[in-house]
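TODO from last week: model Cyclase.
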Amino acid sequence: MRLVDLSSPVDASSFEPDPVVHEVLTPREGARHMSDEMRKHFGIEFDVAELPDSEFLSLDRLTLTTHVGTHVDAPSHYGSRASYGNGIPKHIDDMPLDWFYRPGVVLDLTGHGIGTVGAAYLEKEFNRIGYTPAPLDIVLLNTGASKWAGTPEYFSDFVGLDGPAVHFLLDSGVRVIGTDAFSLDAPFADVLARYRRTGDRSVLWPAHVAGRDREYCQIERLANLDEIPEPYGFRVACFPVKITGAGAGWARAVAMIDE
């Protein structure tokens, strides 16, 4: 089996509109930290000089949102109420695990500029590759945006889905849609420009708003989709980190390809 890493990193040195703060305690600093914590919480005195090289363990502290790096959006990210079920959208720790280990299919959206792609194009692309989506397939959109990762362009130059395109996939039984772009919707500036030009509220983040009426998850900020050799015939694992009450969770997404 060949594994293709579909995940983009959490990197404090990369450009982010909401910057990542990554603080590292060295093993020597970790020793002092451990000694202080043992004294504070358990009343135990411990001299770090007794440790080999006066070192214990390193420790990383990060300040970031759950939407940095490859992550899975939960239904609760899309709004506080849902029109389905009991009206309360699920958080990421409530999502069924079997949604996140399923057959995958990659669709090519690399020929599109900034804006949105509609249902007609997705249907055409499925016909081109000779595949009909099955319930619970994980559909991955290769927009080509990952080449801009770590730069301001990554957040402004990409293509997303319009509302009918999302519903087209959900009508097929798909419950997880992934993209290598910053968002499954079009860039903020494009969304707002179309709304101000038309006054049509349906252009306001329709891919996310669709999640208020249909229970589904998005995987955003994928990578290396062009390294998957065939558009289908592989599996995707993208289990989100279990964060209680969160609207998203980071994921190490991987394509599993039989050889």
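Done. The mean pLDDT is 97.
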